[in-house]
Structures are given as structure tokens and as C-alpha cells.
Amino acid sequence: MKMFIAQLATETNTFAAAPTGLGGFEEYGIYRGDATVSAPETIGGLLRFLRTTMEADGHQVVESLCAFAQPSGRTVRAVYEDLRDQILIDLRAAMPVDVVQMFLHGAMVAEGYDDCEGDLLSRVRAIVGPNVPIGVELDLHCHATELMFKSADVLVAFKEYPHVDGNPRALELYRILVDTAEGRVRPTTAVFDCKMVGLWHTTREPMSGFVKHMQSFEGRDGVLSVSLGHGFPWGDVPESGAKAWVVTDNNLARAQALATELGHEFWELREQTGGNALELDAALDAALAAPPGTVVLADVADNPGGGAPGDSTFILQRLVERNIGNAVIGAFWDLGAIQICRDAGVGAVIDLRLGGKCGPTSGNPVDLRVTVRAVGEAHSQTALGNRAPLGPSVWVEAPNGVHLLLASVRSQVFGVDAFTGLGLDLTDKRLVIVKSTQHFHAEFSPLATAVVYVSTPGAITPDFANIPYSVRDLNYWPRMNNPHASSN
Fold first, then answer.
1. Residue 87, H or E segment
2. Cα four-point dihedral sign 184, 188, 194, 200
3. Residue 390 is assigned to a structural domain of this protein
4. How far is CA 448 from the centre of its chain?
5. Is the domain of 11 the same as that of 134?
6. What H or E segment, with its residue span, contains residue 257?
7. Domain range for residue 171?
8. What backbone phi and psi angles, to 5 degrees, belong to 52?
9. Which of 231, 246, 273 is the last residue of a domain?
10. Same domain, 400 and 437
């Protein structure tokens, strides 16, 4: 069979001031049919896995666009339309095809398009017609919209957060699509709107058990796939929020019953799985009171992976004010400060104004006398098993043993080597503060005596009850105690 594959992914924080432009995609590389050969694993890994799997099964593969941008504000309209149209042009040229399989984030928003994935999929459907199976793998922080379900035959979301299961979900989707194309199954999907907004870590109970519970239904009684889309809280679009959906083999009643059952079970866990971030001073107090060893603090509100700028100074300012030392914090996105340190060179002692540049959610700049300890011109980090660029980066040390990582590629911290790759030892530090919400957990939790999540007034504050939505329905938990009753 002829398989068409493509990838277009970014996660949009509609509250972020800075738009996602062409440069955001170019920073990571825009690959036009050659990602499986040329792209680094962090960008092209899923398509590479798909191509290898499909060709091993004897299928012909037509590879289209592969593009990714770090989350930020709405994508510039012309940029989205150009990337979208490149996929559509390639698809028309490849026709006829037997299967379309794509990776789309699911929470991409552009100027004039609240549902980029639904828009793209509806156009793909118009090209291939009603009989060609279309399947999409989604980040679990997706907006699972009616148009997406209407346009595709199968949607499969990551089940894990951190997202360590990209390849297994791609394989799950691929097998369903092949069975569909060969007439063995007829995918039928039902959805349950959980009416919930939040973040749910699958690294701890009860969510880790709930993921296993979802998977226990797959492969029996005609159930092909079960997904829980967590939604992206900082996307102010009409169809955001958590949704459970079930794909069966032509059994809508079974799909709806199971989606409803699982949705209600997830709802019942809400008090156990809700936010666990502490206010800044309480978080610092908890960290200092933890057993001896290294305590990892997550600066969840300044996570570039959720569209934050990465230059928030709220935690740094409190470290200085409270005279808390023996600490590491990063990665700050401050291009001017990085250039000053690079020019000064390793060993230089300079006065540096750091952070607080992108807006109110960045806090105020902090003035420090620092020593430049290391400069890396092509720094990178481990990211969920792959490599991710950090670009020209520096390690500086401020008074009282406060160590700071500055990176020129705006990114959350995934791997320990974001720090150790510049020679910064973490094992003797009391506090390690990472600008990340949850993806740090896989690598940092083994070195931590405790992990503390910190809430600050950053760009992705975890105060889910008070996110200033103006578009989406406000009938959701935790803003409403029982939104399901309110909707009856």
C-alpha cells in the first residue's frame, strides 16, 4: 500500500504575547520530505519510526512536511497556511494513496484558526475522499475537536506525561489504519467531555494506574484504542478541556458506554489528581525542610514548553532576598545576557542584568555580580531519550553559590545534561530549579530526595479556576464544583 506521512506540531498559548512565526519553526528545522534522513531524532524521530515500520512491512511511503516550533503565542496566519498548504500540495501529488498517517500536536492555534488540526484534516479528507483511512497521533495536551473527529478515522493521543510513548502510540495507530485499509475493522469513535481543566501527571498515582486501566480495555471486546486528551489549559478556544474517547470496531454503543464510564472514573479522581504546586515561599520552605540531599523544584509557570518566555525571575529574586544559596536554576532565555557573557569569556567577573524582559509575567530584571564559569557554543540536552538543541549557552555563578544556566534556544529543561553538559555538578547542590512543568521528571527524579512544584505569577500559572478565558465555556472544574450538573 502507499502510505502518506507528515508532521506539523506546535502548542499554542493564546495568552502569550509573542506570536509563533516562521523563525520559530526554522529554529528547529523545516523538513520537506527528508526529515527521516536529515532531521535530528527530537524532530524527525516519529516519522523515521513510521517510515522504517511501514517499509519493513512492504509498503511504499510518501513523506511530506515535518515541522515543529517551541510553544508560544498564536501562529502567524501566513506561516500556518504555508505549512498546511505544503502538506496538501504533496498529498495531491501523491494521489492515489491508501493511508494517511500524521503527527499533529492538537493544540495549534493560528490567527484566524482556532482549530488548525481540524482545518488541516478537513482539507486532507476533501482530497483523499471518504474511503481512505486517515489517522492522527496527538499530544495528550490536545484540543480534541468535533471537526478533528469528523475528518479523521482514528485519533490516538499519547497516554503518558512526560510523553515517553510516542513510538508505541504511532505503532498502535498504524496497525489500526492498516486493518482499516484492508477491510478487517471499521473504526468508530465516541467521546466524553470531562468538563475539566488541569494538568495530570502520569508519573504518580492515581493517574499511573488510570493509564493502565485505560489500556486494559484495548484489544478485547472490539475496543481498538482508548485515549484521554488532557487538553491544554492555556489555549482559549471553544473546544478545550479534558476528553476521553474510545475507538471500537464498528460498535458505537460500546464506544460511547466505555468513553462515558472512563470519563466518569476520571472525574471521580479529580480531587486526588488536581494541582500540587505550592506558592513560592511555601515551596522554598518545603524544599529546605526536606531530608538532606538534592531537592528539585519545578518552575511550572515559566515553562517554555507551555508557551512561557523562559525569563521569569520570581524564584531567583526570592533566592537572593532570602539569602538561599547552594542552588542551581535554569534555563533562562536571555539573548543579551548570553552575548555579554560570551564576549567577556570564561573566568570573567561582570555585573549582569538577567531576565525579566518579555513582559509582566517575566518579573523584574535581577542585577547580579557573576563569574562566567563556562561557555558552550552548540550546547544541547537529552530530551525524552533524544537530543534537543540549546544553542550558545553559558553557566554563571552568582554570590552565595547560586548557579545559573542561560540558553539561547528557548526550551524547557528536560535532561540533567542541560547543566552537567557545561560542567555544572548537581550532586552537591541543595536546590536544583528547572523551568519545566513535568518533562524534567524522568531524568531529575532519580537524583532528588524530593520534587517540589512551584507556582509563581508566570505565563502559565496553574491557577486553573481563574484562567482569564474569554472564548471557552466557563462551565468546567475547578471553576465550577459540578459542571456536569450545570449542563443538564
1. helix 77-94
2. positive
3. yes
4. 23
5. yes
6. helix 252-268
7. 2-273
8. -60, -45
9. 273
10. yes
